[in-house]
Amino acid sequence: NEVFLLSNKNEGDEPAFKELDYIQYIPINSLNEPINIKNFQDCLFLFDDIHEGVILEQNNEFRESIKDKSYAQQQKIIQTRQKQLDDIVNQSTIQMLTLGRSRRISICIIKHQFRDGKSSVYKLENNALVVWISSNKSKSQEYLKNIEGLSNEQIKRLFSLKESRGTFQYLYISRIGLKYAISQRNIISLDID
Length: 193
Prior knowledge:
Blueprint lengths: L1 E6 L15 E3 L17 E6 L11 H6 L5 H29 L5 E6 L8 H7 L2 E4 L5 H10 L5 H8 L11 E4 L5 E3 L4 E3 L4
Parallel strand pairs: 1-2, 1-3, 3-4
Antiparallel strand pairs: 5-6, 6-7, 7-8
């Protein structure tokens, strides 16, 4: 199956994806309309850090196209294009989340912000959540309690998991059916004591 990557970074600039030659890069700055899911089937889309906002500074071609404008004009053009690209990305994501299942399109949203006003839309249509709890414990606890609806006892069980180095790097939490969590060395049920 095909894997597509949408990222703020230029193709080849992301070390995490550099050696994965089967990933096809879709330049965000080339998009003028939402991705049409009718052109895709049996694939995975990776949205890497673009739900916090598209960054145009990485696009040399775009910067070159506005260089003879005044600074104020450049800023207005940049803001307008960033808003347009943000809308295109969000519309593409929502379309994939709500309609992509019939075409066996999966998506993975990689982002740093837990609560950005869009999380509730994403929550309705996803099967699982992966968090790196050790990188932001208090925000993780707040999100798991207030957005995911986990009890204090369930959160305590998650944070008491011990891995080979004392803390775990990631935690996969199921969101459909029986709630369970998978870390590097543990699998636990959140519904059964």
